[in-house]
Amino acid sequence: MVPQTLGTLLSFLALVAPGIVFELLRERRRAGRKESAFREAARVALGSLVFTTASCLLVLGLLAVLRLLFGIDPLDVARLATDGGAHAKSRFWPIVGTAFAVLLVACTLAVLLDHLLARRRREVVAVRQQTAWHLVFRTDRPDQSVPWVHVHLVDGTSFFGFLRSHTASGIPEEREIVLEGADLTYIGTPLRGGDTPEHKLIGDRWSRIVIPANQIKYLRIQYRSLATDERVPARERPRVLEAQP
Predict the structure, then answer these.
(1) 2 Cβ contact list (under 8 Å, min separation 6)
(2) Which of 27, 81, 133, 180 is the most exposed place for a label (fewest CB within 10 A)?
(3) pLDDT-derived band of residue 240, with 50, 70 and 90 as boundaries?
(4) Transmembrane segments in this chain: where (predicted)?
């Protein structure tokens, strides 16, 4: 029972792991695209089949070289092909080790092919499947700093405040952003009616403000040091193309 269960696990990994590794690597350099689950699964399966077949040929070739040059045959391939299960039980661990070697070589081939394709196509940047909000509020934020945000609404009013939280993903129109701080400021149409546009500090009366994304025209962000409250530059990072929804 144990060999059969382990063999099933290794077979499953050999069928999907190399293709998944290759697809994950390729997604770093191309924008995500919508496609059916069947097509995605078929591409992963086809890639795994190619890499696993090539890996099997390489590993079996290495075993053949060991057998011819040194007389070493840990699997006794000829007997395994004729005797089957009985011989497999006696050579259980060598078979398991060979299966892991096949899987490891297959995944290595996937990594090497991705690297070769990237060099051939001169793909020098990565593509991240992240929202712009996540990048400016998390990835680009320097250590020991907090984003100071100017939210300009579609009706022309504005709010300034420190970022409290935001919706990291999901449908863009359903996201929200929360501002806070003693310097939370409102600029624009009077909050309580009137004719004169207001420029009002509201942080002394209200703790936070929640703004839906469908009311936002644009955002502007500074990063301020937690220790000195001075503006600090955004974090430097490698060139990245962002695939944003």
Answers:
(1) none
(2) 81
(3) very low
(4) 6-25, 46-72, 92-113
Q: Is the pLDDT of residue 223 over 90?
A: yes
140 and 78 co-located in one domain:
no
Q: Convert the pLDDT of each residue in 18-62 to its tens digit.
A: 888 888 777 766 655 566 777 777 878 888 888 888 988 888 888
Q: Are 124 and 241 in contact (CB under 8 A)?
A: no
Note down the domain range covering 103: 2-124
Pair (154, 110) in one structural domain: no
- How buried is residue 198: exposed, middle or buried, by Cβ count under 10 Å (0-12/13-18/19+)? middle
Nearest residue to 242 (alpha-carbon basis) of 134, 146, 141, 144 = 134
DSSP conformational letter for 213: G
